[in-house]
Prior knowledge:
Layout: H1 2-7, H2 9-24, H3 38-49, H4 56-70, H5 76-90, H6 92-96, H7 100-125, H8 136-158
Helix pairs in contact: 2-3, 3-5, 3-8, 4-5, 5-7, 7-8
Membrane topology: Multi-pass membrane protein
Pfam families: MreD
InterPro entries: Cell_shape_determining_MreD, MreD_proteobac
Amino acid sequence: MTQYYNCKNWVIWLSFCIALILQSISYPQEIHMFRPFWCLLILIYWVLIIPHQINVGSGFLLGVVIDLLEGSTLGIHALSFSIIAYVVAFKNNAFKTLALWQQALIVSLLSILEKIIVFSSEFLVVNLTFQPEMLLSSVINGILWPWIFLLLSKILHRYNLY
C-alpha cells in the first residue's frame, strides 16, 4: 500500500516542476510587474488540500529552489513560503469552507504577505526602495486562483490523490 501511495506523489511534484518552469519564464519589462507567482499558487493549493503531505517543509524546499533559480538571497523565499504554508495549514478548515471568490481574496492577501516578507528580508540585506507596483502581481494571483483551483481539483480527482 505504501508503494502505491508514493507512486501518486509524482503528480504533485510534476505540478511544482511546471510551476517552476512557468516562474522562470522571462516577461517583457512592461508587464513584468503583472507576472503571477505560480509556485505560490500551487503551494497554497496543495497545502490546502493535503496538508499532511505538502506542508511547511515542502514550502521551505520550494522556496530554496526559487531562491536558487532567481538568484536572490538564499533563504528569503524559503522563509516566506514556510510562513505562507504555515498560515494555510493552520487555517485549513476555515479556508476550505469559503467560497471560491473569497478564497481568491485570501490568496491575494497571502500573496501580498509573501511580497512584504520578501521585501523586508531583502531590505535588511540590500538597500531597496519599496515600489507599490510589485503588489500588482498579487491581484493577478487572486484572479488566477479560481482557475488554478479548478484545474488542480480536476487533476486531484483524476488521479485520486486524497
